[in-house]
Protein 1
Amino acid sequence: MKKLLLVFSIMLSAFSFAQAQTASFGIRGGANITNLSGDLQNEDLFKNKIGFHAGATLNFPVIGNFLSIQPELLYSVKGFKYDEKVPVLLGLGNPGYREGHVNYNYLDLPVLARIKAGPLYFEAGPQVAYLLSVSNEVKTYNSNGTLVSETTRQKSKEGLSDFEAGYAAGIGLAANNGISFGVRYNGNFSDFVKEDVNFGGDVSNARHSVIMVTVGFTIGGK
């Protein structure tokens, strides 16, 4: 909780400084194309999943209209989808399979340096993320296709790291009416799993990998 308060304090400080620098406020949202990366034991089992992000942005100039700093606070749904019918061993060594997807719901705080070149902009910077909850929507079947167990909306964060440190980088188009369209990649420097207690070691060395397709609308500023 103290770390979460620190994140909000950083955002508040950025807001106060941005106000003094003729800041522009904005909102942002769009789709996440998410999966896992890293030293995975069974990488082929994990497929891309569609999530979303939404939140607020601040942008304040450093060098005119050319260079600015943009902190953001985003709710972001990450995770992965299992390939169809992933084989597993049930009780007494009986074969079965599982399918479904897992959502990891985060609060992201990227602080980006943004360079504007005409209608184009380029952005990059560090990011910290706080894990809010987990939605595990996975079904397990026996070899006959009979449902054995179903896990839905499981909110335990057992074995997972609350905080992650990473980076974000992207490119986009910004119109004069304040609307922008962009593509951004989010990566992490460390694994988000401390101890794999739910997936049999498959995600022990996993990191989130996210491609964001994002739309923003900015108000104010020069």
Protein 2
Amino acid sequence: MDNQQAGGWTGIGSRYRAIKNKIYCSVIQPLVASRNTPHHDALGVALGLIVGLGAPLGSHMLVLGLMRLGFKFNVIVAFGFTFVINPLNAVPMYYGYYLLGSFVVGEPASLNFEDFRKTISPVMDSEYFWESMLTFFRLGGAILLRWLTAAIFLAITFGTLAYVLTYSIQRKRLQKAALRLGLEYRNLVERLQTNDSESDASGQD
């Protein structure tokens, strides 16, 4: 292995570790230490996955910000879960979208992985949000239809499952916390809801 290849693998490893650490700090740690209601956390996980799986790479923060205007949820956790699609896995994931979308719409997939990678590489190489979005929507109707079909299916499916699973886990965690504190679960949830409302009110001031 020459120095150029070694440097390439080192760069990929560094990016992988950086994303892994970011996901841990944005997802696992906030959920374990959360003082929100189960619904607040579960909605954050669900919407994060919906945005990550259903919105084109590069638009995640914008879409999540727009959602925050209409919903109250754990933004930190949601942002972490958008990394389900990231620069390291976007090309193979989106090729999977292409194959799934082709199957759903009943049309054969005419592009192999290498052709698809070359087609979508301008999107991955874009430096700015607007450039990335313009390039993405210029991929052509055939690719966009398949991508959108798969994106909607995966976002709804995994978003729903994530909400149910996270709600169950966080509810059990709060029930244990209530027992330790000598409180009823309902009283603890009401306190947390009050804290959420006060936090949202202070954030709007």
Protein 3
Amino acid sequence: MQAASGPAIFERVTAHHMVQYSGINHLAMVTGDMNATIRFWRDLLGMRLVAGLGRPGYRHYFFEITGHDMIAFFEWPDAEPLPEKDHGTPVKGPVGFDHVAIEVATEDDLWEVKDRLAAAEIWVSEVIDHGFIHSIYAFDPNNIPIEFSAPVPGVDVRRRPKMKDAAPVAAALEGADPQPGRWPAVSQPTSVSDRAVYPGEGNVLIEDEGTEDDN
């Protein structure tokens, strides 16, 4: 009886466990010109270049947005800039990306970014009031559409979700919180002893960990 009850209890706990997400580790973009990409993201926007991987025909570099979030770029020799498409403009056919939205801490930071882009003669929009955020729009050297947003004090849709769609889809009418029972429950969770981790790109970054100071 004891052996039979153990897995059942574990299954119930697993079914009710909420995954704790901690943010975007990195967004992975593509460039054909890493030099221009570094000049824009590091030198103009001020995001530190914190990791670089590479070999002939391939590079993968990471820029720090915050102490946790990063944006990364693959450099592939035959990659070309995207056709320019305004943020949020509908398209037809295969598509899975529209724009990257990066939050700044304050309204002053938003205007600082706007002024830096304008001084560099890079197109940047006027400041747009979206109610819960104020935003500007621009493009990086790869024509990746970027939005920079400053939160509006006192307005937090994460804390107080709102649905203002005049004709929301059925799933949206169920509310903001995850709905139980919509997907099969985990019945055979991977045991700790069976959790295998395989080597991949990036291990070279930690080969000398501990031999250099943090600077």
Protein 4
Amino acid sequence: MKYSVYGVVLLVLAVLTIAGGMVVSGKDVRENEMDKALNTAVEQTMEQLNKEGSYEIQNVQELIADFHQSLLLHISSDSDFEVKILTADIEKGVLDVEVRQTYQTLRGTKKEAVCRKTVLLEQYSDKQEYCVVEFLVNGTIYDKYTIYPGGSLSLPPEPEAEGRIFQGWNRIGSQGLALDGMAVEESAVFQAVFL
């Protein structure tokens, strides 16, 4: 009799554990599906806005319609969805969307999950190449980074050399020391100057 009671208690605990796992898993699955569908729909809509050779989106209503169509293609859940378009601007290439999903759990209670996604479409008419800036100490790279042409030079921390005093950074191929914040228009290599 004693073992029967233990068996029933263990069975009840196992059922409760499985049910709890299904509730948590169900919520995660729904949130993951909504997040993935929203990401895909927003990105596809913005790519369509930027794509050359395809039809052109003429106004905000067409942008929103494209988004709704793409979102519906990626959702297979039986939940109720509320879609809020927070910002839609075809001139600036901005789409900000919030999706609220309402679903029922195994116990019959209603739960809600919210997901928001903002995408900015970046278009560069004259795409700039980066400038590579290198700082050498005794022929070895001490620091290296990239910036856009016209960006401000940021000097690295002063290097140390035993028995020598650091004077500054000299651009290879020119005279004078580099100044922190000076404009960089092209790739450059600077050599540490010691006395």
